[in-house]
Amino acid sequence: MQVSVEKTSELSRKMTVTVPEEVVQEKVNARLKSLAREVKVDGFRPGKVPQKVVQKMYGARVKEEITGDLIQTNYIQALQDNDLRPAGMPHIEPIESEEGFTFSAVFEVYPEFTLDAVESIEVNRPVANVESSDIDAMVDKLKEQKKSWEASEQDAQQGVQVTITFSGTCEGENFTDGTVEDFQVELGSKRMIPGFEDQLIGLAVGAKKTFEVTFPEDYGNKKIAGKVAAFDVEVFKIETSTLPEIDEEFIKAYGIESGEVEAFRADVEKNMQRELAQGLKVRLKNSVMDALYDAVPVSLPAAMVDQEVESLMKPYYENAKKRNVDVNEIKPASADFEDQAKRRVALGLILAEIIQKNEIKADADKIRAVIDDMAQSYEDPEQVVNWYYGDKERLAEIEQMVLEDATVAWVLDKVKVTDEAISFSDVMEPATQK
């Protein structure tokens, strides 16, 4: 086997592989000989079919199979011999050659980069506490979850719940699958597109109204995103809410058997502390990731970015399938996800390099601690633990989480860290994983 490698760009390679003709023919003959013992041909006894007959009948197919096998085995061997790590699938083409069977493989390789800039990174570590006022605010939210609704004769205003029937058209075409019946909207909840709830203010039961609002540019259904839509609405019911008292019945509804306010607030605080710890962890991790992304320059293989874009778009495809909607109606442009995809690919490469260079491992005790902590919020923690350890894929997800945490800890040990005091609400509201 002869191999030549051409560097066509920073990450692109064109590898040309030639397998001597005698090697190809030897494998073809061996395969034909094997076939001659198996095939049945009229006029010949089983196992006695001349190889020339087999060659005429199966020669082309066998050579195609052999060349396919040669591509696979020699491509892998050539990569190993030349210390090449392809990032993504290769584009392979046969090449006519008098020297033997020749093919080219065009692919991208993983980038080479250093981690020298890591030690110059500065990271802000958020620090927060659960204050009494935070507990009060959480109790108010829990009361909101238990509020009751009663029919009212007043006109619609902020805070009431309105039951409506509506239909919507955009550019003359109905996009609500006809008329939507008995649809409940709490005015002020901002569940609907901007402007829709405002149009219901002042309406009474039995009122009908036609109005126009504009869909946001980033609306999920691309067919109507950014366009003006007309809605026909009829009000069937208006309800006002009543918040519950924090009494024994209310407290027991949240699992506090004693029904005591002190025990209830203590339980609320305990849950808030757990949520705060997770929120602080996510914010700190995001800060580390942002710093790594900004500090460590990495050239990105286009194939990896494209694959990540497809992964980010997958939920849109699945959502369309569930709703029996034409995917082209809600499919976003791939460019909408390109920056996010580039960030993910870059960080994946950086983290992998840190892990490999520093031999970072996912500690088994820490994996168990994470699973135990997650299991505590369920009625049967032991069942949850067994559920994770009973499936390799689920366990691998936890292992990856622990490995990332260990990598973040390694980075924090190398960089300058400054504590930054923030509030509980500041931690919780934006605490999302990028």
Q: How would you describe the overall organization of this protein?
A:
The protein has 434 residues and is α+β, with helices and mostly antiparallel strands. It has three domains: 2-108, Alpha-Beta Plaits (2-Layer Sandwich), CATH 3.30.70.1050; 116-129 and 251-428, Trigger factor, domain 2 (Orthogonal Bundle); 148-242, Chitinase A, domain 3. The chain has helices spanning 21-36, 51-81, 132-145, 248-252, 261-295, 302-322, 327-330, 338-358, 364-375, 381-389, 392-414, 424-428, and strands at 2-7, 12-20, 91-95, 100-108, 122-127, 148-151, 161-170, 173-174, 180-186, 208-214, 228-242, 416-421. The strands form three sheets. Strands 6, 7, 8, 9, 10 and 11 form a six-stranded antiparallel β-sheet that branches. Strands 1-2-4-3 form a four-stranded antiparallel β-sheet. Helix 1 crosses helix 2. The longest helix has 35 residues, at 261-295.
Question: Quick one: how many beta strands?
Answer: 12
What's the tally of helices? Answer: 12
Radius of gyration: 32 Å
The second-level CATH architecture of the largest domain is Orthogonal Bundle
H/E series: EEHHEEEHEEEEEEHHHHHHHHEH
Principal-axes shape call: extended
The parts where pLDDT drops under 50 for at least 5 residues are none
List the helices and strands and how they pair.
Blueprint: E1 2-7, E2 12-20, H1 21-36, H2 51-81, E3 91-95, E4 100-108, E5 122-127, H3 132-145, E6 148-151, E7 161-170, E8 173-174, E9 180-186, E10 208-214, E11 228-242, H4 248-252, H5 261-295, H6 302-322, H7 327-330, H8 338-358, H9 364-375, H10 381-389, H11 392-414, E12 416-421, H12 424-428
Parallel strand pairs: 5-12
Antiparallel strand pairs: 1-2, 2-4, 3-4, 6-11, 7-8, 7-9, 7-11, 10-11
